[in-house]
Design a protein that fits this description.
The protein folds into two domains: about 150 residues, Jann2411-like domain (Jann2411-like fold); about 30 residues, no CATH class. It is about 55% helix and about 5% strand. The chain is built from seven helices and four strands, in the order ααααββαββαα. The strands form two sheets. A two-stranded antiparallel ribbon has the order 1-2. Strands 3-4 form a two-stranded antiparallel sheet. Strand 3 and strand 4 form a beta hairpin. The protein is elongated. About 30% of the residues are buried. This is CGNR zinc finger domain-containing protein.
C-alpha cells in the first residue's frame, strides 16, 4: 500500500463531484474491477464522507493540529479500518484495506483514512490544505520537501501566477503614466 498515493487519492475523492453511479465510475477510471460494484448507496455514503472529511483539510490549512488529529481519529472510529497484508506478490508484501465484503464506499473511505493517518504521522498534521486560487475550493495533500504547496493543481497555480503578474504590470503601468493608482490619490 502506497500511503502517500492513498492520501492524495483522498484529496481527489474530496474534490470529486459524486452525484451518481456514472460519476463514481468516472472517478474510479483506473480501477475498472470496481465499476460493476458501484451503487447509489456508495455515492450517498461517499458524499456524506466528503462532508465529514473536509473539516480535517480545513483544520490542517489553518494550522489547527488538534483539529486534524481529533478529526481523523473521530472518522477512524466512525469508519473502522481493517488492513490486511496483501500477498499477491510474495516478494512485495504490503498493506491493503480489506475488501472481501467491503463496498466500494467502504474501500475508498478506508484507503483515505489509512493513507491520511499515515501521512499525518510521517510528515505532520499541516500537510493538507485548501487551494489558494480564487475561487477554487479544492483540497490538496502537500508532500513537497519544504511544505510549500498552496494550490490543488498546476492549472490553479498558473492562473494565480498570471493574475498576480497582470496585477503587478497594471500597477507598474499606472505608476509610469503618472495616473493615480488608487481612488484616494485620484481624489486628492
Amino acid at each position: 500500500m502506497d500511503f502517500i498515493r492513498y492520501a492524495e487519492a483522498s484529496a481527489g475523492l474530496l474534490n470529486a463531484e459524486i452525484d451518481g453511479v456514472d460519476a463514481l465510475v468516472e472517478h474510479l477510471a483506473g480501477r475498472a474491477w470496481l465499476h460493476d460494484q458501484c451503487s447509489d448507496r456508495d455515492c450517498m455514503l461517499l458524499r456524506k464522507f466528503q462532508r465529514e472529511l473536509r473539516p480535517v483539510f480545513e483544520a490542517s490549512g489553518a494550522g489547527d493540529v488538534r483539529g486534524v488529529i481529533d478529526g481523523l481519529n473521530d472518522l477512524m472510529v466512525r469508519y473502522p479500518i481493517t488492513p490486511r497484508i496483501a500477498d499477491h506478490d510474495e516478494h512485495d508484501l504490503h498493506l491493503h484495506v480489506a475488501t472481501k465484503s467491503a463496498s466500494v464506499a467502504e474501500l475508498l473511505v478506508g484507503e483515505s483514512l489509512l493513507g491520511l493517518a499515515t501521512l499525518i504521522c510521517d510528515l505532520g498534521p499541516t500537510r493538507l490544505g485548501i487551494c489558494s486560487a480564487t475561487p477554487c475550493t479544492n483540497v490538496y495533500v502537500d508532500t513537497s520537501p519544504n511544505q510549500s504547496r498552496r494550490y490543488c493543481s498546476d492549472r490553479c497555480s498558473s492562473r494565480a501566477n498570471v493574475a498576480a503578474y497582470r496585477a503587478r504590470q497594471k500597477l507598474v503601468s499606472a505608476g509610469a503614466s503618472g495616473t493615480p493608482s488608487t481612488p484616494t490619490e485620484r481624489a486628492v
